[in-house]
Amino acid sequence: MVTRRFVGIAVLVAMAGGALFVSHAIAQEPSKPGELSRTLEAANLSPESKVLVRAKGVEAVRAGVAEGDVAGLIQRGVGRGIQPAELVSLLDVVVRAKRQDLPVGPVLDKVKEGVAKRVPPARIVEVASRLSGELATSRDLVRRAEREGIRAEAAGERQRATEAVASAIGRGVPPHEMTDLSRQVARSGERATMSRLELGAQVTGDLVSMGLSPHDASETVGAALSRGLSRRDIEGLRERLGQELKSGGSAEDGAKRLREAIRSERPEDRGERGQDKRSDKPEKAEKVEKMEKPEKPSKVERPGR
What we know:
Number of helices: 17
Strand content: under 5%
Number of strands: 0
């Protein structure tokens, strides 16, 4: 009897220990570990290296990075012969960006681009970390812009504005120039939207890439925003600057003439140009008129004759 009781207690203890082990193992896994596990199982790594990479991969998934993105980066890194410790450092850059509540897509894309081009991992970490810093600066600027009255009208607008501002900063536009541009948007009343800030940041960065100084670029775009130019007109600043440059003058002189033209432009001129560029709207009106056929009522009266 004593022996049976002892055996029963031993079985219960073993079951409890097994349950704790299973629970601990589950706690170490992401909610859907399938893709990550399959990638690591197929990877040409030693067992010790798999444990190292797996730990960082699980950490990334727990931080909120999509498991498919984590598995894809590991697969690319292993395929390019990146050492496990270096692969962990690449994953860590992405994890840090996610934990700072930054848009992780641009950072992940930058890391993947570096891996694909066989850039040394240390250099990839340096570039991706710098991008994270630009995104952090941009995020703070966008949050401040929102407090100053710039509103997000649709899902994703805030993130797109953050990425656009970070891109402009990365192309050489100082944060204080982007702050001034943001204030131009904030003062534009009903047009004070994140989509306008995103557009302004994009075009400012493009003008800098065309040879304009960051100050002249932001001032030119700011003039267009403050005058209430349409999206197409603001996008058209690139073409208009290109035409100025073809005349043989400097980029600064071309931008100055462009700003003077914007500031002297009459609202009705802008309205006429906007209508010309949105030619789809008049076409729709014509179609509605064609659908109205006043001849039909006269045909219906025939049976009464």
